[in-house]
C-alpha cells in the first residue's frame, strides 16, 4: 500500500502520521508540538519529511514503550529536531536492555531480530506516570510491557499497544503481550476516565471510546 506523506487529523490538535511503518506515531499540536512514538527502525527520515512537509518542528517525543516499531526513529528525530525524548521509568530496563534477559526467549529473539543490532534510544527524561506535559496527561497502562504509557489529550486516548482501537476494540496479540492480567486491569482503569475517543498504534482512531472499551472489558468479565 502506498504511504501518503500526509498528516491525518483525528481530533482538535491531534494528528496521526502515516510514515512510521507498522506502528502509527501521533502528533499533538499543543504549546510544545509533541510526537507520540517514533516509528520502526529506519523510519526516522520518513517521519522527519512528513513533519517537514506539514511545516512542523516537534519539541518533545514521548515513547509509549520500548518495542522497536515505536522507538526506531527516535534517535534520528532527536538529532534533527533537538526534541526532548521521554519514556516511562518502569520501561527503563527494556529500553536500556538490562531487563532483556528476564524476557521469554521468543520475545527476546523477536526484539533482537527487529532491532538488528541498533542501540536502544537515548532518553532525556524518565516519566513516573503522574505528569501532565503542557496539557498532555500521562496515563500509566502497564501489561503489554511493564512501563507502557498511554496519553490523554482532552479526552482522546493515545493508547500505543495497550489495546487495539477501531470499530471494535481488541486486546494486543498474545505473542507481543507480556502480562495479560495486568493489561486488562489497565484497560479497566482507563474505562473509569470515560474517554471520548481513542487511537492506538495498530488500529484506527475511534470515537465513543467509553462504550467500545466497555464492550472489550465485557469479553473477559
Ligand atoms: Zn509493543
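-> sequence recovered:
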Amino acid at each position: 500500500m502506498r504511504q501518503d506523506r500526509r498528516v491525518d487529523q483525528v481530533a482538535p490538535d491531534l494528528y496521526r502520521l502515516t510514515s512510521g511503518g507498522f506502528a502509527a506515531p501521533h502528533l499533538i499540536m499543543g504549546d510544545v508540538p509533541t510526537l507520540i512514538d517514533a516509528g520502526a527502525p529506519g523510519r526516522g527520515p520518513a517521519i522527519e519529511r512528513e513533519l517537514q512537509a506539514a511545516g512542523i518542528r516537534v519539541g518533545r517525543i514521548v515513547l509509549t514503550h520500548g518495542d522497536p516499531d515505536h522507538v526506531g526513529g527516535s534517535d534520528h528525530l532527536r538529532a534533527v529536531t533537538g526534541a526532548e525524548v521521554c519514556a516511562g521509568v518502569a520501561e527503563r530496563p527494556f529500553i536500556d536492555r538490562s531487563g532483556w534477559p528476564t524476557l521469554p526467549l521468543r520475545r527476546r529473539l523477536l526484539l533482537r531480530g527487529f532491532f538488528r543490532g541498533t542501540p536502544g534510544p537515548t532518553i532525556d527524561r524518565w516519566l513516573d506516570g503522574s505528569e501532565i506535559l503542557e496539557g498532555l496527561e500521562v496515563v500509566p497502562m502497564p501489561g503489554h510491557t511493564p512501563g507502557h504509557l498511554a496519553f490523554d489529550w482532552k479526552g482522546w486516548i493515545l493508547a500505543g499497544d495497550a489495546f487495539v482501537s477501531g470499530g471494535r476494540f481488541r486486546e494486543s496479540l498474545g505473542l507481543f503481550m507480556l502480562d495479560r492480567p495486568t493489561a486488562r486491569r489497565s484497560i479497566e482503569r482507563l474505562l473509569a476516565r470515560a474517554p471520548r475517543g481513542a487511537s492506538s498504534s495498530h488500529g484506527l482512531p475511534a470515537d465513543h471510546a467509553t462504550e467500545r472499551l466497555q464492550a472489550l472489558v465485557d469479553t473477559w468479565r
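The longest strand covers residues 84-88.
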